[in-house]
Design brief:
Length: 282
């Protein structure tokens, strides 16, 4: 596996593969890799001829007071894992390489209608930062496909819509959420949990499942179900950010007759902001 930090070097390597007609699959990450990331890599290797992974802790998607400075940076261990997983090229640029004129001078991409709700409401500017960096990575790598986890359901939708709106000839592939055996969705931020919080954390997925069952049974008012789930999380020890039932196609509130739904939750447990979701068809 090649470890590359400079754009010219990255472009030269990818151009060679393109010349050979090889299909390139991209797995963008912020590092501190866990099995969920490796599942993306495995899927990428199955679908493409070459797998490019990126590690970049993107300052543009962190708000003031968020964990940009303390976000775990574990490049050496990550590179070993990616090499073992069969990645061909790891692009791990510095902030200066990605934002040479500084963040304030960077043109930004905003995907309307879905960037300011849910996680975007709690983390203003977050999805502008995500869309901007992913668009840059798409232009730098020019992959045939890119893979993202479904745990970040709203992020995946922002990226799909951006790809469509900006006509990137890239297939966006969502990969099902990888979970610990107790149901907790794998996330780099799980590392912030204390031992006691880690015991409580799977309850987020359990409450999502209970709400999904209730919905399937067709009983109850949606707003009441959301409130009751948020209260349950609070009683368990979470600080609920949102617990909401939405239309899977656009994350708007469901109207009667909508059948493809997603239940999304975000909640703090100590320092960790956990997110998770369940999709369902009524
Ligand atoms: O999901 C992530 O790790 C990041 O948001 C991403 C997509 C790599 C963009 O920085």
């Amino acid at each position: 596996m090649e470890l590359i930090a400079e754009i010219a070097h990255l472009r030269a390597q990818v151009a060679l593969w393109r010349l050979n007609g090889e299909k390139i699959a991209l797995v963008p990450t912020m590092g501190n890799l866990h099995d969920g990331h490796l599942k993306l890599v495995a899927e990428a290797r199955q679908r493409g001829d070459r797998c490019v992974a990126t590690i970049f802790v993107n300052p543009l998607q962190f708000g003031e007071g968020e964990d940009f400075d303390s976000y775990p940076r574990t490049l050496q261990e990550d590179a070993e894992k990616l090499q073992q997983a069969g990645v061909d090229l790891l692009f791990a640029p510095s902030v200066e390489v990605v934002y040479p004129a500084g963040q304030a001078a960077q043109s930004q991409i905003e995907v309307p209608l879905i960037s300011d709700i849910l996680c975007g409401a709690s983390r203003p500017g977050h999805f502008v930062g995500v869309a901007t960096v992913v668009a840059k990575l798409f232009n730098l790598v020019q992959p045939d496909m890119a893979l993202f986890g479904e745990k970040d359901f709203q992020q995946l939708m922002v990226i799909r819509w951006m790809t469509r709106d900006l006509c990137f000839p890239i297939e966006i592939i969502g990969v099902t959420t990888d979970r610990e055996t107790d149901g907790l969705a794998r996330s780099s931020r799980n590392g912030y949990l204390t031992a006691d919080e880690r015991e409580l954390a799977p309850a987020l997925y359990a409450v999502l499942n209970a709400a999904a069952e209730e919905l399937q049974d067709g009983e109850g008012d949606l707003a009441e179900m959301e409130l009751s789930a948020a209260n349950t999380l609070k009683e368990i020890g979470f600080e609920s950010d949102y617990f909401t039932i939405r239309r899977a196609a656009d994350l708007q509130r469901p109207e009667s007759g909508d059948t493809a739904l997603v239940i999304l939750a975000a909640a703090y447990l100590g320092r960790a902001r956990l997110i998770d979701n369940i999709t369902l068809t009524l």
